[in-house]
Batch of 4 targets.
Target 1
Amino acid sequence: NISANPTSGNHAININAGDIFLDLNGHTLTQTNAQIGISGIRIANRTNISITNGSISNFTAHGIYADGDTITINNVTLRSNGITDSEAALMFETASDFRAENVRLYGNYQGISVLNSNGGMIRKCTGISTTSLSIGSLTSSRMLIDQCRMFQCAI
């Protein structure tokens, strides 16, 4: 397991290149300090990124923030991420051809949020006890939500 203590303006893992496959191999990435605005994994306008097989927990901002094209999140658990209404466990922003599959959400402020994105699929995701939004989309198009289940969520 990986403990992260990022300072202000930093994130635990920054993906600043394309064609990256990050297999967490069953490990958990956890924020262990109280620094505000920290994401577990931040993808910055990149192409062909895949994150799979692990957990991300206790980040004060997003568990995963994804901006770019052809981004896949598969078999990931997101637990207790986000502390305000603008922070989702999984955020796709200005993303295209994105995919979230078999993502499990537990006790996050928001579940999955999609903003200004297009051509995405959210499939076979489950969530329990989000404080705010479960799965939401704003100014996005061509998005499929399929076989997702949310329980004890605010919206």
Target 2
Amino acid sequence: KDARLQERVARLEAENTALADAARQARELVGVEIVESAVRDARRNAARSGVQNARFLCADAGKAAAQLEEEGLRPTVIVLDPPRKGCDAATLAAAVRMAPKRMVMVSCNPATMARDLRQLESAGYRAAALRGVDMFPRTAHVEAVALLTRETADF
């Protein structure tokens, strides 16, 4: 069986608008968003796309991450897509405790991304790749995407 289909994906602080492809490639997908209308849209989009292996929580990312950790969720991949202010300490700490093999961070603010990456690196993750993505041509705005891999096996 394709290894991608065995992955469990948790997306924290996300808009949950482009998750159908991720859900199709994963055994389970959990999306978290604090905006209720975005969660409704994600559920509607999942149903419309025939995605049955996804659930969406309306909650603060840090609290949701702690809840998922209490449930025993051990995702293979966590996607962090924080607001401009970056991830809060509770979100990063819970993500690290869930010990995914990989994390993907999407950020619209390089300064807060650098701060959050330093914290994740001190917890045993290494930035394996970093790319700028020009989603808004003819503006100064660039999204940054980082792939982090876990360096140590013990958490």
Target 3
Amino acid sequence: SADAGYAALLALAQQTQGAAPEQQPRLRRAGVESGLRFAKAFATDPRATAVLVNAADTQYQLGDAQAAAETAKLALAAKAPATPATADQRRVAWTVLALTSFEGARFADAEQHITEVLALTPANTPDSAKKHVCMTDEMRRPRPAASATAAPSMA
């Protein structure tokens, strides 16, 4: 059942928090895999979109940008009968897409995505807004001709 699956996700998240630092990446990857299976098996469950957003954010933090972008797109595409993403969930998903686009040197996409992030960022969150404005300024800087090197990290 969806309740049992979600309970298992929560238990794994709790186990991950209490694990030794060297075990956390493996447990976080297991949490992502379990979350993706949950979202696929229970696509209409009201928690599925939140699980996808969390999976996308975790994939990005673990360095799997391509998978993070794909998962973020799935979360943003959630429509009835699934629960559509909340504004905060959409902001996280768009942030993942902005960062992965920027790091992949897809600057026009990154700027479009960061525009979505800014539209979803409450005006009363100065730290968050400052970070996004800095990202936007960085994306607008002129770039040298494309090369084989990767774009600078936003971390």
Target 4
Amino acid sequence: PSCANFPHENARMQEVELKFQIPEASRQRVLAALTPRGQATPPRTRLQAIYFDTAGRSLAGAGIALRLRKEGRRWVQTLKAGGPNALQRLEHNVEVAVPAGLRPGVDPQRHAGTPAGELLAATLAFVFGDRVRDFAAHHRSGVAAFGGADDEPPF
């Protein structure tokens, strides 16, 4: 579904993710139901994901996931974190423009001003103090995790 009809890009939405276990005997009927008329198979999108964290896994420890994912031909940076209860979580997605054939760098500032972004900023500030910019600068080099045993940036 498109978000084009939403009044504001930061409109609050709640995502509900359902996962189903399909018995093998029913698999072909389910695939057929998901296949558009005139096509042999359901549409598929190739996904490539890169997850980012500190060497000490501070983000994972705080229940935060930060990733860049190529979805077909577009790149999306996603931030996920625990929400106020077991049925809700914080999530913010930002499409990242990048020339074809290149991978964008991760940038925590893309989530600034969102509840998930505030949690990410607080976690990185706790680990790096006033050197939070080092996180994004280092990840632009293409390295997916950084820091020493004490989460020190490698510079």
